[in-house]
Amino acid sequence: MAAPKKGRGPATGGQGRPGRALALILVVMGALVGGMFATGDLTPRLGIDLAGGTSITLRAENQPGKPDSINNTNMQTAIGIIERRVNGLGVSESEVQQQGNRHIIVNIPKATNSEQAREQVGTTAQLYFRPVVAVSGNTPLPDPSADSTPSATPSGKASPSGKATPTPGATTQGRAVTDALKKAPTPSDGASGKPGTRPSPTAPLPSGPADPGTAALDKQFAALDCTPKKGTKEVPNPARNADPAKPTVACGSEGDAKYILGPSEVEGTDVDEAKAVLDPQRGMWIVQLGFTDKGTKKFAQTTGKLASQAPPQNQFAIMLDGQVVSAPSVSSAIGGGSAEISGSFNQDSATDLANILSYGALPLSFVEESVTTVTAALGGEQLKAGLIAGAIGLALVVIYLVVYYRGLSVIALLSLLASAVLTYALMSLLGPAIGFALNLPAVCGAIVAIGITADSFIVYFERVRDEIREGRTLRPAVERAWPRARRTILVSDFVSFLAAAVLFIVTVGKVQGFAFTLGLTTLLDVVVVFLFTKPLMTLFARTKFFGSGHPWSGLDPKRLGAKPPLRRSRRAAAPTIDPKEA
Known about the structure:
Layout: H1 18-39, H2 48-51, E1 53-61, H3 72-87, E2 95-99, E3 103-109, H4 114-121, E4 127-137, H5 215-223, E5 248-251, E6 257-261, E7 266-267, E8 271-279, E9 284-291, H6 293-307, E10 316-320, E11 323-326, E12 338-342, H7 347-359, E13 365-374, H8 376-405, H9 408-434, H10 440-469, H11 474-506, H12 510-541, H13 544-547, H14 557-560, H15 566-572
Antiparallel strand pairs: 1-3, 1-13, 2-3, 4-6, 4-7, 4-10, 5-6, 8-9, 9-12, 10-11
Helix pairs in contact: 1-9, 1-12, 3-4, 8-9, 8-10, 9-10, 9-12, 10-11, 10-12, 11-12
């Protein structure tokens, strides 16, 4: 029977096969780096404070007739809608969070569509279809003249009402043709020369499908001036906070016409989908609307009532956030569950409107309280300062490791390099994957992680040194030190990760970037220590340079003050016999 081999106990901590762990982590690193080159994301995405961009502060206001509409539910709903609008334009690094009870902060990094995103951020997108009671050009109203009455078209088609520059032709069944110039009808001379049906601003309001019945509204209409403000294109918006259940006065979106409108018949919530389409027949961009089942019935009933009215009361105004986008006329009831909005759209403006309508209206009105723009140059300076701070911190760690641990510093530096490769690759890939953007607090988190990672190496090295001081040789010392060091490292990293997780949950905005980076690097520290540092230490312990305790290895028994082996101490202390007693 063969005697068992002496001097070789069971391998612990992967002592016999450290190459497998090293091969595994090297394969993972290669896969992550390969993924970076495959996707083309060779650098992490930068946040607004590093890449430059715009920060917008919005203040919420109560909806008309709803004094308690500002609540946490509506604020969170608004945040979700704003995020979908901005991200729908491809600005996936945007950041939207609530601040206090009635403020929302929107950060839009510099991107191709950042200006479009800014325009959509505070747009409430309250869409209403209101019947037109009266309309005129902007003040002062010219003398009314005959209006060309829209002709009845077969199969329920709608044709445009007469205007100075009429829109040609009718569309397919079930759609409303709107003004191609985004204008409401204006007076035009007819063949008969008789007065038309549009009232003057001071004339009594005609009775119609939605008669306001109040002299106050008539007076308000007469005094309304929709001329855009000087130096800007901002058009007055008296209907911005109007109650949809009551009549109101409104301006056209271009400021060239003013209206008296009846209560809303169809709302934006009745729209199921919206998309921008290029109409090949007319060569113009339009926005196609698809109604819900309920909206289809309401739209058919409304257009049926309007079809029997005389101009302009056979028109319905499409209102977006209090302004009339267009006011098509109706010649018969329109069913089929679809309609279209046409006007002076280009591809961008049509896409913007479709995007806003598709993602829904905000439950609250918002006022743009402040806008802060960060230039790319300023962001570059901040990034440069952060990198310099990180380089200084890393240099100090390297100097300490080399001076104090000598040869062991090679293991520490290789482990830091492995951790840096994993961190950089993951940050680059997480940008397109989850929208992670590296901001200045995140850079600070990465700098702090250098110390956390180095601390794990120090814990292990000191445990190994303790075992050598007890008189053990290097290879047994490496394996005996590992279980004790492992517990300490896991507890330390668990506390760091827990702090990062709590910080990420209870904070908002840029602080979350710090917490996310800290948590990510803490997890990577565990991976690197277990799969890289420990196996590498096992392999180095088998070399003559480290195994023999070379003075520059950092593991010299004499330098560490190692005790002689316990058995030798007992032999040396054996009692001697006095010759006199003998």
